[in-house]
Write a structure and sequence with these properties.
Layout (H helix, E strand, L loop, with lengths): L2 H10 L4 H15 L8 H6 L1 H8 L9 H5 L2 H14 L23 E2 L2 E3 L5 E3 L6 E6 L2 E5 L4 E6 L2 H5 L7 E5 L4 E6 L5 E4 L4 E5 L6 E13 L8 E5 L3 E5 L3 E6 L5 E8 L2 E5 L6 E4 L3 E6 L2 E6 L2 H4 L6 E7 L1 H12 L2 E4 L8 E6 L4 H10 L3 E5 L2 E5 L1
Parallel strand pairs: 1-8, 6-8, 11-12, 21-24
Antiparallel strand pairs: 2-3, 2-7, 4-5, 5-6, 7-10, 8-9, 9-11, 10-11, 11-14, 12-13, 13-16, 14-15, 15-18, 16-17, 18-19, 20-22, 23-24
Length: 376
């Protein structure tokens, strides 16, 4: 289908939901260039401009699909999803629910807290307020879904004669959670992740261990009291800074992205040693190789801000993120599309709406409960 055919389908009312979303995104673009909303006549007059926008740099007779299969065009697709699935917009919903498609809802604030004595607390089912007290530390769940540790007495703050208690907070697939540690450090956990930490930090180091993905805003305390995050393959050391670590076992590389301050990343295996990051840089640990690359910090923490964000990502990378957030299993039949995806889409829409968008770009799915099969 070329751009003109797409516009004709739109004008005749025969577009699919995803096709309609793309065309109306272009209409919106031109509408925003004027002070007032476009009239029906002005929308008609804008058709040629929209066609030109969709067909820009196209050779005669070249189809629309090969061009928009590229990363830049997928940005158009995902930006369409961003606009039309934005919950704060007052525009009508454009992608209708399919009655025959099971609605798989997005994830939310879900986590389990395991105390030092083995007691498990399901945080999404727990009442707000104080959950427990151990070793002079009060654990509270706030009304906005955060886990907060506060020191009840000075003896706990200094360690005193008290035994240090270790806690673990773990999110399932389809879950995320924020925890505020006793030193004031804030940690956001992405889906299928866990953080193990002491209820009070003593000595000259503050050590925690991570699986999965988390964003850290480390509290600035005494310069001699460093903060370190260990995963299965690396250690990140900081004093006071903001950074994101993606260390999922099913991803090829471990990525540490620095937003503020400075960090030292040390590989636990191989001969790469350590690297120091400046804001805007990303450490990539792939196998035994540890390298520093320019980083896209907005992309790195998009999940924390309620977004999927991809840059030149293959389909499997996209679907791994989808599987973690919607708690589904993904399998593949036949050859995978070789295209790459770039752009953003909200994480608060139903899975069927995400798949609708991808389906327009020749990615096909078979849905059986919570099992998604990508087909030819």
């Amino acid at each position: 289908m070329d751009a003109k055919e797409l516009l004709e389908k739109y004008r005749s009312g025969n577009c699919t939901a995803a096709e309609k979303a793309i065309v109306e995104t272009w209409y919106l673009k031109f509408e925003q260039e004027t002070a007032d909303p476009l009239t029906a006549d002005e929308l008609e007059q804008a058709t040629d401009r929209i066609w030109a926008g969709l067909s820009v740099h196209e050779k005669p007779q070249r189809k629309l699909w090969p061009r928009i299969a590229g990363a830049a065009a997928v940005l158009l697709m995902l930006s369409a999803g961003l606009y039309f699935f934005n919950p704060v917009t007052h525009q009508p919903a454009l992608l209708a629910q399919k009655e025959h498609t099971p609605q798989i809802l997005p994830g939310g604030n879900k986590a389990t807290l395991t105390l030092a004595n083995g007691q498990e607390i399901t945080l999404d089912g727990a009442d707000n307020g104080q959950l427990a007290e151990q070793a002079g530390i009060i654990i509270t769940k706030t009304k906005d879904g955060q886990l907060v540790y506060t020191v009840a007495d000075q003896g706990a703050r200094t360690g005193g004669e008290r035994q240090i208690a270790m806690n673990t907070i773990a999110t399932p697939k389809g879950g995320q959670y924020q925890v505020n540690l006793p030193d004031g450090t804030k940690v956001w956990l992405n889906a299928a992740s866990s953080l193990r930490y002491p209820t009070v930090f003593t000595g000259t180091e503050r050590r925690v261990s991570l699986t999965g993905e988390a964003y850290f805003e480390v509290a600035k305390v005494h310069p001699a009291k460093s903060f370190s995050v260990s995963s299965s393959t690396q250690t990140v050391e900081v004093l006071g800074t903001h950074f994101n670590i993606n260390s999922y076992a099913d991803e090829q590389a471990v990525k540490t992205s620095l937003l503020e301050g400075a960090v030292k990343v040390t590989a636990q295996t191989g001969t790469s040693g350590s690297v120091f990051l400046k804001p805007g840089q990303q450490a990539v640990l792939l196998g035994n190789q540890l390298n520093v690359n320019p980083g896209d910090t907005e992309e790195a923490i998009a999940w924390k801000n309620g977004m999927f964000s991809f840059k030149d990502a293959d389909l499997q990378t996209v679907m791994r993120s989808v599987a973690r957030w919607y708690d589904v299993e993904v399998s593949y039949e036949g050859n995978l599309p070789g295209r790459q995806f770039s752009g953003e889409i909200h994480r608060n829409i139903n899975l069927s709406e995400v798949l609708d968008i991808l389906s327009f770009f020749k990615v096909h799915f078979r849905i059986d409960g919570k099992k998604i099969t990508v087909t030819k």
